[in-house]
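Quick one, T. Sequence first:
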Amino acid sequence: MSSGNKYKLIASKLKFEGRAFINGKYVNAIDGKKFETINPATGKKLCAVAKCNHKDVNLAVKVSRKAFNSGVWSKSSPEHRKEVLLKFAELLRKHGDENSVLESVDTGKLITDCINEVANDAPMHFQWYGELIDKVFGKVGPTEPSITSLIVKEPIGVVAGIVPWNFPLMMAVWKMAPALAAGCSVIIKPAEDTPLTAIRVAQIGKEAGIPDGVLNVLPGYGDVGEALGRHKDVDAVSFTGSTEVGGYFLKYASESNLKPVALEMGGKSPFIVLEDAKITDDLIDNAMNSAFWNGGQNCSANMRQIVHKKVKDEFLDKIIKKVKKLKVGDPLDLKSNMGSMISKGHLQTVDGYIQTGIDEGAKLLSGGVSDSKQKGFYAKPTLFDGLKENMTIAQEEIFGPVLGVLTVKNDEEALKIASNSKYGLHASVFTQDINRAFHLAKSLPCGTVSVNTFSEGDIKTPFGGYKQSGSLSRDQGTEALNSFLQTKTIWISHN
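C-alpha cells:
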C-alpha cells in the first residue's frame, strides 16, 4: 500500500471527538450547545463540537485551581514531571500517523507538514521540556554572613493558552509543554476552526499520567478566550494569533487581575536578496518556502521579497517557473505542494488582497483570484512584481500564498523598506558578504533573522517578535519555561 493510500485509509477510519476535556474526562458544554467543524479541503462536515462559554470556563478554572493548590502536579518532584512528559512524548509518537491525519482533515494542511509537526515536533517538545525541568536551579545571593538569600523558581499557577488555527497542535504544545513542565495547570482554548487535535491530545496526556484538572481543553468561539482573559483566577495567558486580538487580551488583563500576557502575533516579514547573492536553486526554494509553506498561512511568512535590481530579473525568471509548477490539491495526496485555505471566508479575504494588489498597480505574473466554482477552499499561488512599499499587499498581513517582489538599488534602501512595517517577527537575508549579513541582521527590528536560509529556528531557540508582532515573552527555548515560572526571594536571618 502506498503512503498516500495509507493516510487516506486512516482518514476513512477516523473517529472524531468534539467534546470539551475538563477534569480528566470528555464532557458536553454546560449549555449543551454545539458547532460544526469541517474539512476545508472538501467543505464537508467532520463532527459537532462542544460550544463552550463562560460557564465552562468557570468550571475549568475551578478544577485547574483545585489541582494546582493540591500540589498533585505543581509540587511534585521535577523527576516525576519529567517521567510523565517523556511518557506523553512516547504516546504522541505512537499515535503520530493518526493524529497527523486528524490535523490534516481538520485544517486542510498537507499531510507531509502534519507528520513533521504533529508526529515529530510535538512529541519532541514534551521530551525537551521534560528533560529540562530537573536541570533548573535557583540561586544564592551574595550577602553578609548572618543572612542567606535564596532565589527560587515556582510555577505561576493556572495558565490559559489561546492558540490559532494555522498550526493548531504545535501552538498548543508550545504552551502546554513548558507550562506543564513548570508545574502549572493549563487550559487550552483551540481555534474554533481547528479544535480536534487539541481535544484528542488531552486524553493522551491523561494516559501519560497528567492528573485530572491539570490539563483542560475548551473548544468554542471568542467569548471563551475573553472569559479566560478576564478571569481573576487565571494567573497568566499565553496567546498566539492576530495583532488585533492580542490587543484585546492586554485589555482583558488590565480590566481584571493584571495577569501577565505573553503575545506572539502577526507579521509581514521581508526576504532580502542583495546583489552579491547567488541565485541558486537553494535560494529559490527558500524564497518559495518562505511565502508558500502552509499556503502562506504563517505569521512569519516572507511575502515581501526585496530584491536588488541587478539580480531581480534572474530571480523572477527562476521563481516564476517554480510557482507555475506548484500543485494545489488534496492535502492527503503526497504529490500536492499546497493544501487548502482554512475556510471559505478566509479564501475570500486572500482573494480580496490579490484583487487589491492588481487594482493598486502591482504586476500579476502568476496566479490570481481563485475559481469560485471549485470544491474546497483552494487559493492560487500568486506572484506579483512591481510592488511599492506602501501598497496594501506590501503592508498588511495577507495570510495566504501571495509573494510580492520589491526592487531596490542598495543595502540602505533594502533596510529602509524592510523596516517600514508595524510588524517585527522575522526576516531573511541572502548575501555572500558576512559583514553585510551581520549589519542587516543586527539592524532589522525583528525577533528572528535568518541568513542565507529561511528558518524560524527550532525548539532550543526562542521565537517571538518586536513591535506589534509580540511582547517581551518568547515561545520555545528556556525562555518559554521562564514565562511560566515566578521568581521568589527568601531572605533568612540567622545570627
